[in-house]
Amino acid sequence: HVQLVESGRGSVQTGGSLTLTCTISGNTFSTHSMAWFRQALGKEREAVARINQGGGFTDYANSVKGQFTIYRDNAKNTLYLQMNSLKAEDTAMYYCVLNLSYWGQGTQVTVS
User: Fold this and answer.
1) Kind and range of the H or E element at 108?
2) Do residues 32 and 51 touch, judged by C-beta distance below 8 A?
3) How far is CA 14 from the centre of its chain?
4) 46 in Cβ contact with 59 (< 8 Å)
5) How far apart are CA 43 and CA 61, in angstroms?
6) Are 37 and 46 in contact (CB under 8 A)?
7) Which of 16, 29, 68, 105 is the residue whose CA sits 20 to 30 A from 91?
8) C-alpha to C-alpha distance for 106 and 101, rounded to whole angstroms
9) Which segments of 13-106 are extended strands (E)?
């Protein structure tokens, strides 16, 4: 039974930083690619960043390139999303996704 639990939700001011964390249990984390998605109110879900199994390859949506960093610690079964220079348009529910198959419950980020 795979479980993904996000943490790091919060409200930050414009220009602030926040790191989201996703801890995975019940699966061999290190053998799967991971991703972060987000969905703002009234908008479609958007892929934000992805990372391969070993962490050597990452890819970002154009809207967050140079602003967000995805990384992972396979020893801790944990995925991270470092978000800097946050803007109001980054306000959304953020989801951790394993292998595009398993989703976390989401964590809210509000920038104002």
Assistant:
1) strand 107-111
2) no
3) 19
4) no
5) 16
6) yes
7) 29
8) 15
9) 18-25, 34-39, 46-51, 58-60, 68-73, 78-83, 92-98, 102-103
